[in-house]
Amino acid sequence: MADSSYQPKVYKQAGGERMVVASSGSLDVESGGEIDIESGGYLKLAGTAITATAAQLNAMAAGTGTTSATFIIDSDSSGAKLKFDTNSATGDYTASVVPPSLTGNITLTLPNATSTLSGLGLVETFSGIKTFTAVPVVAIDDANNTAVTDVITLTKTTSGAPGAGIGAGISVIIENDSDATTQSASIDFVETTDGTKANLDTDMVVSTMLAGTVTEGLRLDASDQSLTIGRNATDANGVNKFRIFPLTTASGSVVIQATANTGDTATTITNAAMGQASTITIPDPGDAVANFVLSKGTQTLAGTYDISGATVTYRAIVNADIAAGAAIVRSKLAEDALQRYPIPLTLLRKSAGAAMVDDTLADDEFALALVGWGTGTLTMVTNSAQNNTKTATALYEFCIPPEYVAAGDVRLVVQAKSAAVAGGGTISGTVDAEVYKLGDDGTASADLNETAAQATTASFADYTFTITSTNLVAGDRLMVCLRATCTEAADSGTAATTVGSAEIQLDIKG
Question: Which pLDDT value is given to residue 1?
Answer without folding.
Answer: 45
